[in-house]
TrEMBL record:
Pathway(s) per entry: Amino-acid biosynthesis; D-alanine biosynthesis; D-alanine from L-alanine: step 1/1
Entries under InterPro entries matching the protein: Ala_racemase, Ala_racemase/Decarboxylase_C, Ala_racemase_C, Ala_racemase_N, Ala_racemase_pyridoxalP-BS, PLP-binding_barrel
Binding site for substrate: 147, 327
Xref: HAMAP family: Ala_racemase
Family indicated by similarity: Belongs to the alanine racemase family.
Protein name in the entry: Alanine racemase
Organism this protein belongs to: Sinomonas halotolerans
Length: 392
């Protein structure tokens, strides 16, 4: 399923929202990138816009991030980088997760930098030959995360092979990078070990003749907690979207503004008697006569079915989901005194900026026993993205 075309809404006109929407505040994206640029300086900022900009929309987020001082974009897949190029974005892009079926030729043709763990090297070189254009490569060292990247014992030979191809004019090693495993838990010792291994890997590459433009290992948590991990470039994802990478610190604590608000117009409000069951399994029973509100967002929209009593803000009050999350809808118990007529067409906000005590994606992450990354990324294409705050 493809996402509907994004609607970009100028701040100067009155807003008419779709009945359900993920509203993305591009001013918040710009603000967050400004915060990150300050904290990371003199290192530069790569805005990570993989997974459709963590669910926010890769192209509008990329444009806002570049306008606010990011100088690189990061994606997992070459196809994500090609989509940015197709939208006319010319900034440096790095794609780092490939398979033998990845289209390396298209990446080289589009000037997309390629992460390389080892096995890709021959394919990247073949693509460079085909395109008659040197590929730009960032060699990846696995300093301990155990995902992609060359292990330390393969690093020497990978660098040697890459330098040979560089000497033949088929590629340029422009970067060395790695990824951290526990930077969100600053008290853990493994980050020191990863940084030491990274410094060794960089030194070996430089000694072997790589004239590196960028050395990079920091993700969002390391930007805030490990200045010694900043090197030349930081790869920031979740913080661009205004969410905290730390369990014990909120976005506000870090000076970030959550960019996404998930909202819907209430579908129905009705009186029910005491002991009325709610949703599949009848896990919730009204404690007394009450008013139920029906919110047209469910797990097909990305609301986690496993979430336990996630928060929903309606008319300045925070309620909790009553009973199971269904495919298309959730129910909130508005209480014994709520007049159903007063709630007709009311707005229900599942999460947003957190201002005035409203719920956040971090609250939903706690309710679903997950991380805020997953909450925003999983909002499905059925929910139209609606952009505000475009004017710089
Ligand atoms: C290789 C790589 N770098 C950077 C990031 C950004 O991480 P964060 O969202 O914690 O800033 C990711 C995201 O998972 C990643 O996979």
């Amino acid at each position: 399923m493809t996402s509907p075309a994004p609607q970009i809404h100028p701040t100067s006109e009155p807003v008419r929202l779709p009945e359900r929407a993920a509203i993305v505040d591009l001013a918040a994206i710009r603000h967050n990138v400004g915060v990150l640029a300050k904290v990371a300086a003199p290192a530069r900022v790569m805005a990570v816009v993989k997974a459709d900009g963590y669910g926010h929309g890769a192209v509008p987020v990329a444009r806002a991030a570049l306008a606010a001082g990011a100088s690189w974009l990061g994606v997992a897949h070459i196809s994500e980088g090609l989509a940015l190029r197709a939208a006319g974005i010319e900034a440096p892009i790095l794609a780092w997760l490939h398979t033998p079926d990845s289209n390396f030729s298209a990446a080289v043709a589009a000037g997309i930098d390629l992460g390389c763990s080892g096995w890709e090297l021959e394919r990247i070189v073949a693509a460079a030959r085909e395109q008659e254009r040197p590929a730009r490569v960032h060699l990846k060292i696995d300093t301990g995360l155990g995902r992609n990247g060359a292990t330390a014992d393969r690093w020497d030979s990978l660098v040697g092979e890459a330098v040979e191809y560089q000497d033949e004019g088929l590629l340029r090693v422009v970067g060395v990078f790695s990824h951290l495993a526990v930077a969100d838990e600053p008290q853990r010792p493994e980050t020191d070990e990863q940084l030491a291994a990274f410094r060794d890997a960089v030194a070996l590459a430089e000694d072997a003749g790589c004239d590196l433009e960028v050395r990079h290992i920091a993700n969002s948590p390391a930007v805030f907690s490990r200045p010694d991990a900043h090197f030349d470039l930081v790869r920031t994802g979740i913080s661009v979207y205004g969410l905290s990478p730390f369990a014990g610190q909120s976005a506000a604590d870090l000076g970030l503004r959550p960019a996404m608000t998930l909202r819907a117009t209430l579908s129905q409000a009705k009186r029910v008697p005491a002991e009325h069951g709610v949703s599949y399994g009848l896990l919730y029973k009204t404690p007394g006569e009450s008013t139920l509100g029906l919110v047209p967002l469910g797990y097909a929209d990305g609301v986690p079915r496993v979430s336990d009593r996630g928060p929903v803000r309606i008319a300045g009050e925070t309620y909790r989901v009553a009973g199971r999350v269904a495919m298309d809808q959730i129910v909130v118990d508005l209480g014994p005194d709520a007049d159903p007529d007063a709630f007709a067409g009311a707005e229900a906000v599942l999460f947003g900026s957190g201002e005035e005590g409203g719920p956040t994606a971090e609250d939903w992450a706690r309710a679903a026993q997950t991380i805020s990354y997953e909450i925003v990324t999983r909002i499905s294409p059925r929910v139209p993205r609606f952009y505000v705050g475009e004017d710089a």
